[in-house]
Each structure stands twice: as structure tokens, then as C-alpha cells.
Amino acid sequence: MENNIIAVWGSPSSGKTVTSMKLAKELEAMKKNVIIVFADIFCPMLSTIMPGMDVKNRTLGSLLSKPHIKQLDIMQTVIPYPKHDYVAVMGYKNGDNIFTYSEFLAERVTEFLKELRQVADYIIIDCSSVLTEDGFTTIALQQADKVLRLLNADLKAYSYFSSHLPLISRAKFKANEHIKVLSNIKPLQEDALFSSVYCDIIYTLNHVNEIEPQFYSAKLFEALSGNDAKKYNAEIKKMTREVFDIE
After folding, report:
1. What is the pLDDT confidence band of residue 2, given thresholds at 50, 70 and 90?
2. Residue 217 DSSP code
3. Does the model's pTM come out above 0.85?
């Protein structure tokens, strides 16, 4: 299946994890099996999205440390998301860092992504913002079918991309094909200005006050309500269908 691995990448605090979860929520509503891979070793997310769950050794680091990766290995590592039959997650556990596991080869990540395609209808990779130290994200950006590039409308994000885009300038990254998303836009921010600066913005996600409490209470799969959520919900629905090519 084409377009079944989507990488979500962007500057720090651009909403990568939130967007990944909301896209998965939409796919679940369509009864599509989806795996979210939380690939950020610098900020492990499993304990944040599933607080209190003992993941034991079912971590991305342990899987990538294997000499070879088969579908059975993935099935033994993936964690069903509680109370959601169509969603499963993978990632690093609380306390993991870049020195926790042996250094893995690029070939191992390639092998993992190849096998992962056979396990679920769709895969969403919540990438790290740190490219220089995270080999997984670097390879995911190359091998994903599509990349959602999340951009904040502020100078910090502009500075981040000024520094990091040269790192993925080689043809194999296909950076010019990234789908640009202006993210977490607050009412007084100059979204039109940054849209012109970033160029070719496809989607715009407005700020929703309810999202932050959802994030910190591990309830991102709950529905959003209120006036500020209407536009956001509509954009997520549109993005899901168009990015994943769902009729």
C-alpha cells in the first residue's frame, strides 16, 4: 500500500505528537488499523500518553537492537492503546536516552519500516526535532511515503528551520515534497506573514485551548469541543483523508 507511512516532523513544540494522535483518532473513526511510532529518544512519550502502564521491555530501542527484525518481533513490541481497538503504539519508555541501547544500524531501521508496512493499514511516525543525533528520524524522513512538516508562526521556528533544512537538502530526503502545515496558530499571530515566508502552506491548524489539558491528562483521543475547535477538527479531517489518500 502506498502512502501508509507518514512522518510528522517539525520544530520543537510545533505539535508533532498532538497532530499524530489526532490523525490516528480520525483513522480509527474510519476503522483503519494504525500504529503510532513515537520516535523521539530525547523525550520518550509512552509514559506521557499512557501514564502508569508498565511497558517492560517493549520499547523501540530494544527492537532496533535486535540483529534482525521480523513481523513477529514487531507484534511482540507494539502496545495496544487502551480502549481503542484500532490503535497501537511503539516508542521509548521513561528514562531511556541515546546511551540506553546499543547503537543501531541504518539497515535495521530500514528493515523495521519495511516489516512495519505489513502490520497495520497506516503508520504515523512522530519524529524528533533533533536530526543530528537521531538516526531513526533521519531515516524515517527519507523513507516515509509523505512527510508532514509542522511550522509555528514565530521566529524561534523560523530559526530552527533555517538551521535544520540544510541538513536534509540532499535529494534522497525529498524536502521539496514535504506537506507544510502552519501549526498552533493563535489569534494575534501573523499567520499570513509566516505563510508567505515559509511558502506553499497546505494546511493551517489553529490554536485550541482544550488541547493542552488533554495532552497533560493523557486524553488526546477525546473529542474537542468549543468554537475554537470547529476549524481545527475540520482541518484534521481534511488532512487525514488527503494525506492518506482515503476516498
Report:
1. low
2. T
3. yes
